[in-house]
């Protein structure tokens, strides 16, 4: 009796403290949300978080994952690696344990990568993070699903070459990379160096100190070197600052190509017509206001005052990126249920298997509301990325419009780069590559 009374008292205390009693969590899949709605990167981090959270709410509104509802908790990181790790540590064991984590920061990804094998929590980095983690034989717990920075950089080089009339026309050209001086900003460098070697263009590397509000010296170098193209690997205020400096310097925005974190509405809205003609790579999606997903979010959440952010933001670039990121995590859980039991809560280990065995056909994507938004994605033990497709969209002064066909990153360049860099990581960390038997586990 005493034990029963104690259990009831604990449950009552939990309820009074605003936390649901532990037994109420038994049939819920917990997903921590590492977000940043404050600080220098808030204008870009907020719409992503809104899209991510709205998609989790939408899954619940649709009945959950085969009946299993999602519980989630946000933790503010301020795009700071140490705070991101603190959030991860605080949330990883909550509500039965985290299903997966999406760090939304390359620096945080590097730090959490070391913890994931011990904690048995998959690290999902949709279109960002460590490019070499596409190799699932070394990075068992990392999933850069839908693409990496090497895919993004390769697609940009292909787009630039097409504009010039072919890859052979890049010989003797000057291409400058203006990048956020952080692990994130440095990610594309190995791929670009490889392409420069292959095609004979001159690559100029121009780091910018975070957060990137001061770029006068950088653009003075651009004015002096007069590159044929500028690639922008920025985030937050760094992007709009670069576009304003390009305008002041007289560098044609048509010859600027941003990474997908430098190609959303917050990057250009304050520059307006000054950003007209500016291009950015977009991995899978762009702004998708007419998609079925957006219509479902509006009707099932926002029209019922259950949406997370402003209604007019739904369908914009970063909102869609958050929603797509959440969808890929959820589909990893659904995939796990196919093997380990429909309607059951999955452990981190089971979700890891699900993410490694994703098979998102076009029919499945269409059914989820992503028709016309994405191409199919299929992962495996050796390939934790699952797709290498991108497009270019261009700011017309009012909206982002697609200006290229689908581009596929050149696997003959990317695969050897992934393999060699992953092998180097494995040697440093004294890791043994997974065996075919381990791939089945």
Q: Please state the oligomeric state of the protein chains shown.
A: single chain
Low-confidence stretches: 1-25
What is the tally of helical segments?
A: 17
Distance separating the two termini = 43 Å
Strand content is 5-15%
- Bin the helical content: 40-55%
| Mean pLDDT reading | 93
Major sheet: size, sense and barrel closure? 8 strands, mixed
Instruction: Give me the count of strands.
Output: 14
Helix and strand composition category:
alpha/beta
- Radius of gyration of CA atoms, rounded to a whole number: 22 Å
Overall body shape: globular
Write the layout of secondary structure elements.
Layout: H1 2-16, E1 28-35, H2 42-61, E2 69-76, H3 81-91, H4 106-113, H5 116-119, E3 123-124, E4 142-143, H6 149-164, E5 174-180, H7 183-186, H8 189-199, E6 202-208, H9 216-225, E7 229-233, H10 237-249, E8 256-258, H11 265-268, E9 279-282, H12 292-300, H13 317-340, H14 348-356, E10 359-360, H15 362-367, E11 377-378, E12 389-395, E13 400-402, E14 407-408, H16 411-429, H17 436-439
Parallel strand pairs: 1-2, 3-4, 5-6, 5-7, 7-8, 8-9
Antiparallel strand pairs: 9-12, 10-11, 12-13, 12-14
Helix pairs in contact: 2-13, 3-4, 6-8, 9-10, 13-14
Task: Put the structure in a nutshell.
It is built from 17 helices and 14 strands. Helix content is about 40%, strand content about 15%.
Notes on the structure:
With 441 residues, the chain is α/β, with parallel strands linked by helices. 42% of the residues lie in helices and 14% in strands. It has 17 helices and 14 strands. The strands form four sheets. Strands 5, 6, 7, 8, 9, 12, 13 and 14 form an eight-stranded mixed β-sheet that branches. The longest helix has 24 residues, at 317-340. It is globular. The two termini are 43 Å apart. 51% of the residues are buried. Residues 1-25 have low confidence and may be disordered.
């Amino acid at each position: 009796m005493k034990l029963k009374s104690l259990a009831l008292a604990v449950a009552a205390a939990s309820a009074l403290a605003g936390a649901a009693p532990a037994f109420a969590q038994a049939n819920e899949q917990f997903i921590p949300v590492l977000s940043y709605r404050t600080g220098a990167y808030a204008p870009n981090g907020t719409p992503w978080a809104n899209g991510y959270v709205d998609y989790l709410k939408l899954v619940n509104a649709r009945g959950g994952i085969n009946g299993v509802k999602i519980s989630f908790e946000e933790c503010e990181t301020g795009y700071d690696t140490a705070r991101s790790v603190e959030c991860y540590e605080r949330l990883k064991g909550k509500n039965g344990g985290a299903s997966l984590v999406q760090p939304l920061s390359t620096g945080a990804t590097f730090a959490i990568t070391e913890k994931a094998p011990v904690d048995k929590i998959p690290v999902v980095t949709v279109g960002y993070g460590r490019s070499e983690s596409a190799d699932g034989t070394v990075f068992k717990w990392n999933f850069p699903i839908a693409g990496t920075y090497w895919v993004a950089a390769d697609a940009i080089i292909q787009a630039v070459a097409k504009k010039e009339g072919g890859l052979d026309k890049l010989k003797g050209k000057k291409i400058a990379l203006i990048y956020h001086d952080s692990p994130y900003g440095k990610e594309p460098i190995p791929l670009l160096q490889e392409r420069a070697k292959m095609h004979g263009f001159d690559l100029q590397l121009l780091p910018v100190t975070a957060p990137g509000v001061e770029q006068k010296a950088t653009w003075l170098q651009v004015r002096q070197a007069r590159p044929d193209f500028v690639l922008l690997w920025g985030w937050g205020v760094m992007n709009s600052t670069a576009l304003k400096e390009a305008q002041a310097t007289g560098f044609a925005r048509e010859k600027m190509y941003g990474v997908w974190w430098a190609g959303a509405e917050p990057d250009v809205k304050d520059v307006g017509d000054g950003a007209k003609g500016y291009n950015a790579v977009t991995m899978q999606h762009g702004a998708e206001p007419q998609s079925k997903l957006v219509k479902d979010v509006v009707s099932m959440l926002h029209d019922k005052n259950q949406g997370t952010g402003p209604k007019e933001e739904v369908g914009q670039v970063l909102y869609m990126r958050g929603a797509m990121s959440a969808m890929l995590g959820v589909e990893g859980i659904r995939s796990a249920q196919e093997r380990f039991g429909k309607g059951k809560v999955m452990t981190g280990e089971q979700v890891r298997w699900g993410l490694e065995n994703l098979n998102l056909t076009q029919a499945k994507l269409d059914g989820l509301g992503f028709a016309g938004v994405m191409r199919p994605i299929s992962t495996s033990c050796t390939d934790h990325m699952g797709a290498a497709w991108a497009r270019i969209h261009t700011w017309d002064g009012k909206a982002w419009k697609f200006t290229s066909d689908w581009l596929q990153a050149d696997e003959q360049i990317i695969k050897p780069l992934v393999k060699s860099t992953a092998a180097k990581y494995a040697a440093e960390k004294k890791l043994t590559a997974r065996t075919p038997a381990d791939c089945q586990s």
